[in-house]
Automatic annotation (TrEMBL):
Transmembrane segments: none annotated. CDD domains: F-box_SF. It comes from the Eukaryota. This is F-box domain-containing protein. It comes from Phascolomyces articulosus. Residues 1-40 form the F-box domain.
Length: 331
């Protein structure tokens, strides 16, 4: 088959599917490496040169294949075994003395690849059905099941892997320095992905405006990827890896910058005051999408407050942000 047809087929396959396809024979391995390179820009052919990166990709492929049991519940045994192996591999690669710079380098690689995989196949990672988008019952319910935060399947897997890896790493290294390095790098990679999606979204928006198109097809995939990332962040906020204050800072500094409706007031006035109905529809659609994302964030803080009772201040802040957005929508 020509490469175009193979890539079309590969678009329906996840990274783990291609990875395990490559384990069946040498010819399949060569083809799988080629498809992975074209689809994800990951070079798996030079295993010896990128041995640590190759190990992380292999670990994630294993987690994706065996991370859920037959009842679609997290397989904690499989994830614990992967986390233990990764922690030992990182530990064995670091010197006994002055280990912090080496841990910083290896953890930067590992966390970067893990977070990349959250967004590698967003079209194959459906958003969970959330009743709170239809009404506010999930935010006011006191049921523990309804207060449990849910993200995409890949987001749940990566969150569980990160949460399982963290205590093992801090046990092997001095807890405080290792914890500080892990926290800083995790937030840095989350910020990196938000910035990348923001640039892509704004570029596509400018192309849509310049072409006079009112279609949302150009931005649909970026929006979906952004919500996948936001729900992954919300899932992290339920753990010890991220606090509600971290989530609030990320929202104020980066997540808000994603939305076109949060550009300068002159841009907004030009957009809203125009008589062009298509431009008005674009603006309304943007506000609706912003509301959906803020609901995801507010729900994350509500769930954390419900279980940890440490997010009252941030809960009020997110509620105010959502109220401002909804007021803009109905005004």
């Amino acid at each position: 088959l020509p490469l175009e047809s193979l890539l079309k087929i590969a678009s329906y396959l996840s990274f783990s599917d291609l990875w395990y396809f490559g384990t069946t024979s040498r010819s399949c391995q060569k083809l799988a490496h080629q498809l992975v390179w074209h689809k994800y820009h990951i070079d798996l052919a030079r295993q010896r040169i990128n041995s640590f990166n190759h190990l992380i990709h292999a670990s994630i492929a294993y987690v994706c294949r065996y991370g859920y049991d037959d009842q679609n519940n997290i397989n904690h045994t499989a994830i614990q075994s992967v986390a233990n192996r990764l922690a030992v591999e990182i530990y064995d690669r670091t010197p006994q003395l002055n280990w912090a710079p080496c841990l910083d380098f290896l953890l930067d690689k590992a966390l970067g690849i893990m977070l990349d995989h959250v967004l590698y196949d967003p079209s194959l990672d459906p958003l969970p059905h959330q009743q709170h988008e239809k009404d506010g019952s999930a935010l006011s319910s006191s049921s523990p099941e309804k207060q449990k935060y849910s993200s995409t399947p890949m987001g749940r897997l990566m969150t569980t892997l990160l949460v399982t890896l963290y205590p093992t790493l801090t046990a092997l290294f001095d807890a405080d320095p290792a914890s500080a390095i892990h926290h800083r790098l995790l937030l840095a990679h989350i910020s990196r992905h938000i910035d990348i999606l923001t640039r892509r979204y704004h570029q596509q928006h400018r192309r849509r405006i310049s072409s006079g198109s009112s279609s949302f097809a150009r931005t649909a995939s970026v929006r979906h990827g952004f919500r996948v990332l936001v729900q992954f962040i919300g899932n992290l906020c339920q753990t010890e890896l991220m606090t509600a204050a971290d989530l609030h800072i990320l929202t104020r500094q980066r997540i808000i910058a994603f939305f076109i409706s949060y550009q300068s007031s002159s841009t907004n006035n030009n957009m809203v005051s125009t008589a062009d109905s298509s431009c008005w529809r674009l603006w309304m659609d943007e506000i609706e999408f912003q509301t959906a994302v803020l609901l995801d964030l507010l729900r994350a803080v509500v769930c954390r407050q419900y279980t940890r009772f440490d997010s009252g201040k941030e809960l009020n802040m997110f509620a105010s942000m959502l109220n401002e957005t909804v007021s803009t929508l109905v005004s």
